[in-house]
Amino acid sequence: MTQAVPLAVRGSRDGWAVFEGPRQLTRGYSCEYTAHSAATRLERQRRQKTRNCLCCGGQFLSDGPGNRMCNPCRNSPLV
Questions:
Q1: What are phi and psi of 39, to 5 degrees?
Q2: Measured at the alpha carbon of residue 59, what is the angle toward residues 63 and 42, in degrees to the nearest 5?
Q3: What is the pLDDT of residues 48-63, one digit of tens each?
Q4: DSSP label at 29?
Q5: Are 48 and 63 in contact (CB under 8 A)?
Q6: Which residues contact 63 (CB under 8 A, 6 or more apart)?
Q7: Beta carbons of 51 and 68 less than 8 angstroms apart
Q8: Coil, helix or strand for 60?
């Protein structure tokens, strides 16, 4: 399994941006904090994967290996 290149927030000619290695992934942000928020969002999207719910068997978009139940089952009082 190939390892994803870590994301980095660096200054660019347009302000602050998120980079994957030498490649700029986002537009330039005027605030470094906003660029870090964008990097966090992109990291979360990288981890997302379609999985089958352990309760109902339906497919849902999981946020990572610890997320194995769909929201309806997770919020159900019967579980």
A1: -65, -40
A2: 25
A3: 899 999 999 999 999 8
A4: B
A5: yes
A6: 44, 47, 48
A7: yes
A8: strand
Tell me the pLDDT tens digit for each residue of 4-49: 778 999 997 889 999 999 999 999 999 999 999 999 999 988 888 9
| Number of helices and strands in the chain (H, E) | 2, 5
The residue length of the chain stands at 79
For residue 27, give both structure tokens: 């537009």
Q: Where are the alpha helices (DSSP H) in the chain?
A: 32-47, 71-74
Tokens found for residue 65: 């290996």
CB 26 within 8 A of CB 18: yes
Q: Which residue has the tokens 């999981």?
A: 62
Rg (CA), the chain: 17
The reported pTM is: 0.65
Structure tokens at 47: 């981890």
Q: What is the DSSP letter of 63?
A: S
